[in-house]
Design goal:
about 30% helix, ECO RV Endonuclease, Chain A, alpha+beta, 14 helices, globular, 19 strands
Length: about 500
C-alpha cells in the first residue's frame, strides 16, 4: 500500500488548523461511528488523526506511516493528562507502543536496519488532552482537544540507550534460539528483561504478541521538554546509556565516601546543609548527595533528563545502629478517582505502572547511635530495587482491590484511635486521632497511610468522609528483606 507523502510546511498547515479543536470536531471521516457499537476502541484518537485529519488509510505494516520531505516518518498520537498539583502541568497518559517484537525477524537484524529504529528515527507526535479524571468510553474521546504536535528526533545519547534496550531483547532471543530446543518455552522471559531496559519495555506478555513500548516516563519527558520544561542533560558520556554504566559511577562514589557522615560528604562536595526553622537539616540533602554523585547541578533526580526518562525514583533509607529499618517507605499519592473506577483493569492502572515501570534507587545511611541527627548519619552505599510480577500481583493488586471494594461498596469507616487502655488518643493539637479502615501495615506489605501536619490538614473528602491525603507505602520490614537480597551497587 502506497504511503502518503507530504511537504513539511503542508503538514504543519494541516495540523495548525486543528490545534485546539476536539477530536470529534475534526472527524470528517466519521471514525467515531464505530464507538456506537463498541465502548472500547483501542487507538481511536490516532485513527481520527490518521484518517480524518491526514487522510490516511488503516495500516498495520512495520514501517513508518508517512513520508515528509522525502523522509520516512512515524506518526504517533498520544494523550496527555493533567498532572497533580505541584508538578509540571501535563504528563503522558500512557506508554507509547511502537512495533512488534518479532522473534523470527529480530534475530536477523542489526539495530539501524531494525523495524524498531525505522519507526523511531523520525517521528511526528500529535498530542491530545485526555481531559478527564476518570476512564471514559471511546465515544467520549470526541470531546478531547488536540493539544499540539511536534517533529521529534532522538538525541545521540537517547539513541544509544534505545539501541542498548533493543539489543537486550534481540540478544536474549538469539541466545535461547541457539541454546534451547524449544525457544518459545523461554519467550515468556522477554517481559522480565524490563529490569535491564532503560527507556523501553515490552507488552503484553508472551504468548500474546509482545510489542516494544516507550515507557510512560519517556513519553512524558519528551512531551514536557517540548512544552517548555527544562531538564538537566548529562551529555557526552556513554556511561549514561546503560544501568551498568550508571552503576559504575555510583560504585566510584561509594568507594570514596562510604563510612563518611552526611556532614562530611556535604563539605567535600560543597553542598549546603539547609535547615528548617527548628534547626533540623532538610531530608533533601540525601538526594542532593545522589545527584552530586553524577556531577549534576540539579538537586533533584527528576530534573535530570536521563533519570526522568528511566523512571528511577530516589529514596533514602536509614538503618538503625543494629542494622534494622527505622521506618516504612512512602511511595506515591493515591488517585482514588482512578482506583475506584471499575472500568479500569489492574494492568491499566497508575499503581500497576508505578511498580512495573519504576525502580527505587536507595541511598543507604546508618545511624551511629539511636536518635542521630541527619547530618551525623553515615553513608553505606546504593541499592536498586525492582518489583517483580509476583510482588505486584500478590501485594500491590491485593491492596488495590481492597481499596476499590471499600470505596465502591461504601464501606469506608472513620473511627477514633484508642490507646491500650481503651481511651481515645489525643494529638498535640488536642484533637482526637482518627483512622480510616484502609489496608494497614499490620496485614499488608503495600498499604495506605495519610499524611498531614495536624488535624487541619484533612483536606481530602471521599465518600463524604474527611481525611488526610493518602499515599501508598511499603512495609519497612519487607523492604529491608528485599534490600538484604540485593547487593550494593
Amino acid at each position: 500500500m502506497a504511503r502518503h507523502e507530504f511537504k513539511r510546511d503542508e503538514l504543519e498547515r494541516i495540523l495548525d488548523n486543528v490545534k485546539g479543536k476536539t477530536l470529534g470536531e475534526v472527524d470528517v471521516k466519521k471514525v467515531f461511528v464505530k464507538t456506537e457499537y463498541f465502548s472500547k476502541v483501542t487507538g481511536i484518537a490516532g485513527d481520527v488523526i490518521e484518517q480524518s485529519v491526514l487522510g490516511l488509510s488503516a495500516d498495520s505494516e512495520q514501517k513508518p506511516d508517512i513520508v515528509v520531505d522525502d523522509v520516512d516518518t512515524e506518526l504517533k498520537t498520544t494523550g496527555l493528562k493533567r498532572a497533580r498539583k505541584g508538578e509540571f502541568p501535563l504528563d503522558a497518559k500512557e506508554p507509547m507502543s511502537i512495533t512488534a517484537v518479532s522473534p523470527d525477524r529480530i534475530v536477523l537484524e542489526e539495530f539501524y536496519d531494525s523495524a524498531l529504529w525505522h519507526k523511531l528515527e523520525n517521528m511526528l507526535i500529535v498530542y491530545y488532552l485526555y481531559d478527564s479524571d476518570t476512564t471514559v468510553p471511546a465515544a467520549e474521546y470526541a470531546r478531547f482537544p488536540i493539544q499540539d504536535y511536534h517533529f521529534h528526533v532522538f538525541s545521540e545519547e537517547d539513541r544509544t540507550v534505545i539501541q542498548n534496550d533493543w539489543e537486550i531483547v534481540r540478544d536474549f532471543i538469539r541466545m535461547v534460539n541457539k541454546e534451547v530446543e524449544d525457544p518459545t518455552s523461554r519467550y515468556p522471559e522477554i517481559s522480565k528483561l524490563r529490569e535491564s531496559m532503560m527507556f523501553m519495555d515490552t507488552a503484553p506478555k508472551y504468548p500474546n504478541a509482545p510489542r516494544f513500548r516507550l515507557k510512560r516516563s519517556v513519553v512524558g519527558a519528551i512531551a514536557q521538554k517540548y512544552l517548555g520544561r527544562d531538564f538537566e542533560l548529562l551529555q557526552g558520556d556513554s556511561r549514561f546509556s546503560t544501568y551498568e554504566g550508571l552503576f559504575k559511577i555510583l560504585r566510584s562514589f561509594t568507594s570514596e565516601y562510604r563510612g563518611k557522615s552526611v556532614k562530611d560528604i556535604a563539605i567535600c562536595l560543597g553542598l549546603e546543609l539547609k535547615r528548617n526553622s527548628k534547626g533540623v537539616v532538610n531530608k533533601s540533602i540525601a538526594e542532593n548527595v545522589l545527584t552530586a554523585a553524577f556531577g549534576a547541578e540539579s538537586g533533584r533526580l527528576r530534573d535530570i533528563d536521563i533519570f526522568a526518562k528511566t523512571g528511577i525514583i530516589p529514596k533514602t533509607i536509614t538503618m538503625s545502629s543494629r542494622g534494622l529499618r527505622t521506618e516504612d517507605t512512602k511511595l506515591d499519592a493515591v488517585d482514588f478517582v482512578e482506583w475506584a473506577d471499575e472500568s479500569i483493569e489492574f494492568e491499566d492502572s497508575s499503581v500497576y505502572n508505578y511498580f512495573m515501570n519504576h525502580s527505587l534507587l536507595f541511598s543507604i545511611f546508618q545511624e551511629p547511635h539511636a536518635g542521630s541527627a541527619i547530618e551525623d548519619k553515615v553513608f553505606l552505599g546504593f541499592k536498586r530495587v525492582n518489583f517483580n510480577d509476583d510482588f505486584i500481583y500478590q501485594h500491590v493488586k491485593k491492596t488495590w482491590s481492597r481499596v476499590r471494594e471499600l470505596v465502591n461498596r461504601n464501606e469506608l469507616v472513620v473511627s477514633e484511635k484508642r490507646n491500650k487502655h481503651g481511651y481515645p488518643r489525643i494529638n498535640r493539637a488536642g484533637t482526637t486521632v482518627e483512622e480510616v479502615n484502609f489496608p494497614k501495615a499490620k496485614d499488608n506489605v503495600v498499604f495506605l497511610r495519610g499524611t498531614g501536619s495536624d488535624s487541619a490538614s484533612k483536606t481530602y473528602t471521599l465518600n463524604g468522609l474527611t481525611m488526610y491525603p493518602q499515599q501508598f507505602w511499603i512495609k519497612g520490614t519487607v523492604l529491608i528483606q528485599m534490600l538484604s537480597e540485593v547487593d550494593y551497587i
